[in-house]
Amino acid sequence: MESGLSEIGSTKMFDGYNKRYKHNSETLGCSMTFSIYFPPSPSSSHRSPVLYWLSGLTCTDENFIIKSGAQRAASTHGIALVVPDTSPRGLNIEGEADSYDFGVGAGFYLNATQEKWKNWRMYDYVVKELPKLLSDNFSQLDTTRASISGHSMGGHGALTIYLKNLDKYKSVSAFAPIANPINCPWGQKAFTNYLGDDKAAWEEYDATCLISKFNNLSATILIDQGENDQFYPDQLLPNKFEEACKKVNAPLLVRLQPGYDHSYYFIATFIEDHISHHAQALEL
């Protein structure tokens, strides 16, 4: 299948451009959209490092671009923001849109093993297909210098993808991540349906489990968590991840932010800190 990459939107912002693209994904077997913020470039030969942003449940590639205000800091630091969608779309699998926390808009950044959901391979899409598509088509991006971040389900995606691919990403950060999905309702529902009953397979997509195996980190993990987040006590479990990091001396900074909730107001408040964190790791 040809990638059929086409630009479907362009808007100037902080002297750079938000651009939106559509392509045929071989990994997912459907047409996908993604967004890139290209920072202003000092010269035509200059190549910007990349920060991947993975969004949360129900989101598309547009939420972060529209709501986070991340472009201001990305423009200042010269970092390109790459924002994929959160699941395959348009496949019309029975039940794919029945609930907000499973199926469409809820890919959980894993490779499903259950036959019905075999197209849900967002892990391979983010780790393999998308970076190759970028390096093949955008000479202004330096995909060898990359970091990863995300929110909620996307925070889970960022942490797990980073830990399993320490050679591919310089740093990770997350806002209110689902940090121990095997022990929360969201994770249990998704993993049962995508991965079946094999609990060992579940652990391969749980940051709290993975940190015991993959902890030779070159940069501190940064997590921001709002204390007024309705999902904090039952779904997110950052304390479990913190305990697991302590056991293996993995460098972690968890900042509990009083009064903040789970929304993009919270993300917009602290996104500049996260981009600075990645700029340092990317040696900008």
From TrEMBL:
Top class in the EC scheme: hydrolase
Active-site residue numbers: S152 (charge relay system), D229 (charge relay system), H262 (charge relay system)
SUPFAM superfamilies linked to this entry: alpha/beta-Hydrolases
GO terms under cellular component: cytosol
UniProt entry keywords in alphabetical sequence: Cytoplasm, Hydrolase, Serine esterase
EC number: 3.1.2.12
Any matching Pfam family: Esterase
Similarity remark: Belongs to the esterase D family.
Protein name: S-formylglutathione hydrolase
Organism field: Brassica carinata
Organism placement in taxonomy: Eukaryota, Viridiplantae, Streptophyta, Embryophyta, Tracheophyta
